[in-house]
Amino acid sequence: MEAWGVAWRQVYAVIVTCPPELFANRDERRCIGAGRRFPTLFGVSLRHVALDWGTPEVHTEQAWTGKALRIAIARAVPLLGRGGLTPGRIRRWKAMLPIADAFDARVEAVEATTGRRRLEEARRVAEDEFRDLNREVGRHVATTPEGMTALVRVIGRYPWKDTGGAWPNLLRSAANVAGIDLADLDHEHDSINASRA
């Protein structure tokens, strides 16, 4: 996970330099459904670019890729018709192709250098294994303090336990019996955190 995060930050440092010419305009978002459905009406997924991250002005743009442009160009007439705005859209998309291809090459180069795709696959496999192990641990009833400790750590990750009622107190009680400091659970749910104050 850590290695993937390092790689992703390096890739995203390039993605945020996306040329503004590649951002889908209002007409394109309306006519192809960009950002509303995935894949869009045209059967393409646009690149999402979060800009001004960490500021009140943060927003996400949808940017064209070379692959998405080629698909849109090929499907424009069958989906939108020959007349109206279609010829102008196709001209715009064709003019954007060299920019998109050059930017895609930059993104692909940093992905290859960092091994981001390989690391992402390894991360997914590890997450699946971790989830399976948590399920397996959660199926057992603790009979020792060590078993109780394992269950508390697994259950401490479940969001449903913060729905109120006895769940937060049950987790606090189990952590107390198991000898686990609630701060060690790195808990984001307010009802658990409130007990630490």
Strand-and-helix sequence, N→C? HHEEHHHHHH
**How many E strands?**
2
Shape: elongated
Low-confidence stretches: 189-193
Q: What does the main sheet amount to?
A: 2 strands, antiparallel
Count of runs of 4 or more consecutive helical residues: 8
Q: Average the pLDDT over all residues and give the rounded result.
A: 81
- Residue share in β-strands: 5-15%
Rg, please? 24 Å
Class by SSE composition: mainly alpha
Helix content: 55-70%
In whole angstroms, how far apart are the ends? 31 Å
Physical arrangement of strands within the biggest beta sheet: 1-2
Features:
197 residues; mainly alpha; two-stranded antiparallel sheet; 5% strand; elongated
Helices and strands in order:
Blueprint: H1 2-15, H2 26-32, E1 47-51, E2 59-63, H3 66-80, H4 86-114, H5 116-138, H6 145-155, H7 167-178, H8 190-193
Antiparallel strand pairs: 1-2
Helix pairs in contact: 1-4, 1-5, 3-4, 5-6, 6-7
